[in-house]
Amino acid sequence: MAQQDDVFKKIVSHAKEYGFVFQSSEIYDGLAAVYDYGQNGVELKNNIKRYWWDAMTLLHENIVGIDSAIFMHPTIWKASGHVDAFNDPLIDNRDSKKRYRADVLIEEEIAKIDDKIEKEVAKAAKRFGESFDETLYRQTNPRVAEHIKEREELHERFAKAMNDNDLEALRQIIVDRGIVCPVSGTKNWTEVRQFNLMFRTEMGSTADGAMTVYLRPETAQGIFVNYLNVQKTGRMRLPFGIAQIGKAFRNEIVARQFIFRMREFEQMEMQFFVRPGEELKWFEYWKQWRLQWHKALGMGDEKYRYHDHDKLAHYANAATDIEFQMPFGFKEVEGIHSRTNFDLSQHEKFSGKNIKYFDPELNENYTPYVIETSIGVDRMFLSVLCSSYEEQMLDGGDKRVVLHLPAPLAPVKCAVLPLVKKDGLPDKAREIVNDLKFDFATRYDEKDSIGKRYRRQDAIGTPYCITVDHQTLEDNTVTLRERDSMEQTRVSVDDLHKLIHDRVSLTTLLRRLG
């Protein structure tokens, strides 16, 4: 665990050093759990959003997009349940004065038991070698069986407390397990309390006439209140979906792990409207399709897993998370939920407007059911960064830090490097840049040795480096260096566009999804 923490610290440091992520308001000592994206970070982030958007709207004829406002009528949040039920169970340690989410403390306790199981299995695998039968070992080893039983009992107790919204039961689990504050190391806990996560402000020109409004805690409600507008103006028939990318805001008390949990973040959400009774079929479809979208990036299929919810939200009849293996464990990056018709029914009730869908095939009006796919842009960004970061020892004792970013997501697709700053090489290099820049994010670099320039491009994940030398002026060929393998090949300048396009184009990535 300590080694993983060390790797994560290096990733955070790398993100700042190379212009991916900065602490917000840093010159004023920063603002907790708020971050800014730098010059390379914003390009990577935009490429992630483009991959999601095109996968949704180009590959599905029945999905369109909108961009709804951040400020919405406050009754919307009453209808959605956020005013009354959008809470986290919080607990304070009296000695450190630190505040924690009670559910997260218990989840981390469960994760510790999982680590014990995995360590037992790893030791046995090393001891027995190729003859090791992991499944049999998990079933028969007494220590593993004891840990599994302990985990199941704790998990069952935790799930019941969450489903019952039993705050005292949550606290009792923390007490019984002897969970200590990470800062003070003591067990001096307060009671567990609920804390509403919405930011509120006022809209209006005078204090007396001001209306309380909220910064939206999710983007989904903007889709729900517009679904009938989109359906009618787009002549949409069920099933159909509405996609949106936008900022959301949550007053997270326990905001941590860099950009994994922030107070201002960005979501990519799609609400898919279906006939009642068909929702679970579509839930399974989107559960599979969204995992396929993640795996198409080639970051390692084994790094993903599903996590079905123990406690369903008040609006859901099925829910699962897609989790990714971060340096600090498997964590949620996307949720797929069957929201039933709760949201639309609530908005119809609170607005007093008829927003039912008329089904021409059935010749009847009804409230559609909804399947939601919701992915955090920032969490997706972090998963890409973490899976791509590597420190490599090279022949001769040299070392490089490289980001093996999926090429279509890389902020810079190619860098053009004149071998020396004379003899017409910079002019030829600029000519190549001016040809490629219309299709690819292209960077020109002439400072320092060619080796140092390669290292700079490796550190930001540039898939290709193009070196212009004296031979280029003779036969119009350049050296094309590939980031991951560091292989160098001599190619014609005329072939550069096609060679680069085949690997870095978003279209190539989308074709893997069909």
Automatic annotation (TrEMBL):
UniProt keyword annotation of GTP-binding present: no
Biological process terms in GO annotation: diadenosine tetraphosphate biosynthetic process; glycyl-tRNA aminoacylation
GO molecular-function term, one example from the UniProt record: ATP binding
GO cellular component, as recorded: cytoplasm; extracellular exosome; microvesicle
Compartment(s) where it occurs, according to its Swiss-Prot or TrEMBL record: Cytoplasm
Enzyme Commission number(s): 6.1.1.14
Any Pfam family matching the protein: tRNA-synt_2b
Enzyme class: ligase
Family that this chain belongs to: Belongs to the class-II aminoacyl-tRNA synthetase family.
Function per UniProt: Catalyzes the attachment of glycine to tRNA(Gly).
Name used for this protein in its record: Glycine--tRNA ligase
Native source organism of the sequence: Paramuribaculum intestinale
The organism's taxonomic lineage, starting at the top: Bacteria, Pseudomonadati, Bacteroidota, Bacteroidia, Bacteroidales
Gene that encodes the chain: glyQS
